[in-house]
DNA sequence: GTTTAGACTGCACACGTGTGCAAACCTGCA
DNA sequence: TGCAGGTTTGCACACGTGTGCAGTCTAAAC
């Protein structure tokens, strides 16, 4: 950018550029509006003047007149869920493909959800993407009324005109079950925290069904309670689940996510002296970066955050073009990544 | 929110609310402007009408007329740096205290920086917060000219009127050195990736100085090269640093961040059969959640992400009120968290 | 030279809001 | 009642932009 020699006290406006280029303000506007009718000569003069003045389109004013901004609300339940964090980067990248910018909103308390969604409305967001968390069905209806596109990743919606993109949690659970069984485990358990998330329930269902279908008798699938999350939750659950005679102890455990699995494994090894995979086989879910670490080498189900993000954004953009399209549900396949915790 | 019975096809405007409440549009505007002069009676009628219509202030239009938005650009170098991720939540929380909203921008490639910063300007952001990454001194000058407040976290600025908030990296390095020495280590090493970040250099300097001051002779501090980051980088560095006769092998290692330390420790244990802390003591930096995991139990230096975020936002807000205040540099203390990797 | 289709340009209006200014209103006191 | 002082209100303008419409210009076809 050529720096201007004159005094340039504040923001250059389209009118300033017009004066400098010797054209009308409309010509400036059209130069920065893709597809508008401007001659090549005019465009060049405008671009030159704009460059000299350091002119930047005021997207706020543009949004006012077009009655829609290029902002997209991205609602996350805190930054402790590593899967959600992994989702952010591809979401941003895909939004950028459509010249959209993410307005990040954190909702750690469900009570915050209402005010947050209302706040986003004040920016006339072009759409909103939700990631896992408790469903704000109430105010989402306000979004429907205003035809603000909504897309959800790994969440249930049960709402007309809300697109849902989720990993194939059900199949993932089944794959986990088969993997544990193939490793020779007979007493199996599914461990999850009682957050009541859609994905957690779905993974458990897929797991249970596959276990039942395997023809093994007397399989006990346990769903335990806990108030803490992530790693610490895994430790707590292990304390409940492994503190029993060896003959009653599960031989194979499927954890609803990798952080849970890490806590569970650490407790199993260091508190109960169990060897993995010799005494206990473990499968996680998410394939977070640390799952590949030698300390864990965790067999897990990889979710394609790229696919999830890309599809969510594309659905959102489609709905911006036509808000009346019926709701769609898209399933993204998961992939079993086999590492040492299931290999014996 | 009371749902309206009438057909409400689109967005309610302040004029609509004014008609319904039987007042002027100005009264509506003043009702939603803190500190404006409205009688209690009028305010109540306006609020009632606004509620019935589902009216939400259009912050875009408001920003146009006030010539400044309530958006703050938050620039991050990807989501792979866990410390940056930890920073996001307190940043958002503190921005919310001042009714500001974060516009999240990812800059993984330094070449992207310029276009990203220009893009943020189009939203007339009220300020920008940078986290670690390569310095975009060039376009930052454009921000200075326009008097857009800038705050940096754990980054060097060297620019007038840019506030910098950083952890006491230098002292952290010194604490790490003393901790390793106190654990009995004599051959010490500092491992970092050649990203050239300010914080990395500062930590190394503090470490070196403290080692030199300890009076130990012939301490070798090694700064190694590598092209990969995080965990994999730690593994790669360990392969270089530990592949030598025991008498020449470092007994104490200070890693520039925890992820690096995890990779280093895993390689030391699984590839070189070293015991930690018996054969090797290790100190990290950041205190990410996994540092407390039993598999690592890593002694590390905790950065107060809350303090960093709070100070950065408060400096930013102060500068919004008065853009001419001289640049300030604020140091946030770090805390040594002792775990098993340094206890013998 | 005349006609005509097409590309380009400028005028003027619109978007939804904040706010200075003066008028209107209210309250209390003489 | 008359008046002073303060509070509240509405008018009108401003912010920076997109875009319909009609007019102008260019160039090709006749």
Instruction: Write out the strand line-up for the largest beta sheet of chain A, numbering strands in chain order.
Output: 2-1-3-4-5-10
Q: Separation of termini of chain A?
A: 61 Å
Work out the strand percent of chain A: 5-15%
Task: Note the quaternary state here.
Answer: homodimer
The helix/strand order of chain A is HHHHEHEHEHEEHEHHEHEEHEE
Overall geometry of chain A comes to elongated
Let me know the average pLDDT of chain A.
89
Low-confidence stretches of chain A: 1-7
Helix content of chain A: 40-55%
Task: State Rg of chain A.
Answer: 26 Å
**Largest beta-sheet details of chain A:** 6 strands, parallel
The helix/strand class of chain A is: alpha/beta
Q: Quick recap of the structure?
A:
The structure is a homodimer of 344-residue chains. Chain A has 344 residues and is of the alpha/beta class. In chain A, 42% of the residues lie in helices and 15% in strands.
Question: Topology of this structure?
Answer:
The structure is a homodimer of 344-residue chains.
Chain A: H1 14-21, H2 25-31, H3 40-53, H4 59-66, E1 71-76, H5 82-97, E2 101-106, H6 112-122, E3 127-130, H7 137-145, E4 150-153, E5 163-167, H8 169-182, E6 188-191, H9 198-213, H10 230-241, E7 252-255, H11 258-270, E8 281-286, E9 299-302, H12 305-321, E10 329-332, E11 335-337
Parallel strand pairs in A: 1-2, 1-3, 3-4, 4-5, 5-10, 6-7, 7-8, 8-9
Antiparallel strand pairs in A: 9-11
Helix pairs in contact in A: 1-2, 1-3, 5-12, 6-7, 8-9, 10-11
Chain A binds a DNA duplex (30 and 30 nucleotides) through helix 2 and helix 4.
């Amino acid at each position: 950018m050529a720096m201007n020699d004159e005094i340039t006290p504040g923001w250059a406006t389209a009118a300033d550029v017009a004066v400098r280029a010797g054209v009308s303000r409309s010509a400036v506007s059209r130069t920065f509006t893709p597809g508008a009718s401007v001659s090549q000569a005019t465009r060049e003069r405008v671009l030159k003047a704009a460059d000299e003045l350091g002119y930047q389109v005021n997207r706020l004013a543009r949004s006012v007149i077009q009655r829609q901004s290029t902002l997209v609300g991205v609602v996350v339940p805190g930054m402790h869920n590593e899967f959600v964090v992994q989702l952010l980067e591809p979401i941003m990248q895909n939004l950028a493909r459509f010249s959209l910018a993410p307005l990040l909103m954190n909702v750690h308390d469900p009570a915050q959800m209402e005010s947050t969604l209302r706040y986003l409305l004040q920016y006339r967001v072009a759409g909103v993407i939700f990631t896992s968390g408790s469903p704000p069905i109430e105010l989402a209806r306000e979004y429907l009324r205003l035809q603000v596109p909504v897309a959800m990743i790994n969440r249930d919606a049960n709402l007309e005109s809300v697109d849902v993109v989720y990993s194939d949690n059900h199949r993932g659970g089944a794959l986990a079950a088969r993997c544990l069984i193939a490793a020779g485990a007979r007493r199996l358990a599914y461990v999850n925290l009682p957050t009541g998330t859609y994905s957690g329930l779905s993974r458990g269902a897929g797991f249970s069904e596959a276990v039942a279908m395997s023809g093994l008798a007397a399989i006990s699938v346990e769903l335990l309670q806990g108030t803490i999350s992530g790693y610490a939750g895994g430790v707590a659950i292990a304390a409940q689940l492994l503190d029993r005679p060896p003959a009653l102890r599960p031989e194979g455990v499927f954890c609803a996510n990798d952080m849970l699995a890490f806590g569970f494994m650490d407790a199993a090894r260091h508190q109960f002296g169990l060897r993995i995979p010799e005494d206990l086989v473990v499968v996680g879910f998410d394939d977070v970066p640390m799952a590949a670490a030698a300390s864990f080498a965790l067999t897990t189900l990889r979710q394609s955050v790229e696919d999830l993000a890309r599809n969510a954004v594309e659905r959102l953009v489609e709905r911006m073009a036509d808000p009346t399209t019926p709701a769609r549900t898209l399933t993204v396949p998961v992939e079993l990544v086999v590492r040492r915790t299931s290999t014996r």
